[in-house]
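User: Phosphocarrier protein HPr. Structure?
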Amino acid sequence: MANTALVIVSHSVGLAAGVTEVAQQMAPDVLILPAGGTDEGGVGTSFDKIDAAVNEAIASGEVVILSDLGSATMTVENVLEFLDDDRAQWVDGPLVEGAVLAAVAAQQGGDLVTVINAVKEAATQWDYASNGEVEETPSGAESATLPTDATTATVVLADPDGLHARPAAMVARAASGKDAQVTVNGVDARSVLALMGLGAKYGDTVTVAATGPDAALAIEAVVKELS
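Assistant: Predicted structure:
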């Protein structure tokens, strides 16, 4: 089990459970707990539900908490004030995107600070996209010159939906934990957002490159997830 857990707080029982389900698929070794709705299961928030989830999660290590709306955040803040433990931290960020990136970071062994930064990365990307400032990247285009000593492989994307969140997360997991620097079409293979930003679609050919002692192993693992 990973050292950093997540708690997903929402006004809706279903939304908290749904976000948890999506994030859990990206990070099977991470403890992710939903805390949605009121004590009666209605729309709203529950101090007791959030408190129970945070206390269960913190028993395993550190905890990052995400929430959907302002009043949920206020309840989280009350729980954290009562808990008074720096191992549990609320982070401001988009609920779904933040949960996915946080889960991937935790799955990769990230500590509290690393997972918090993953949520902040999601928030930055969300703001960037909301302002209409995202650069268009040609599908399958390479964004950087390959190192001369890189081991490379090309692969045709097999997922009908292209390089979307789930396969991007699987690639990021495959590229992590190895003594190698891995890229897909020039972007860091450990970054879910960077991979999704490629806009690669089903049937596109992408180039996987790696340098370092585990380059061959890393490429094999990444190609397996893409094909």
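The chain has eight helices and eight strands. The radius of gyration is 19 Å.
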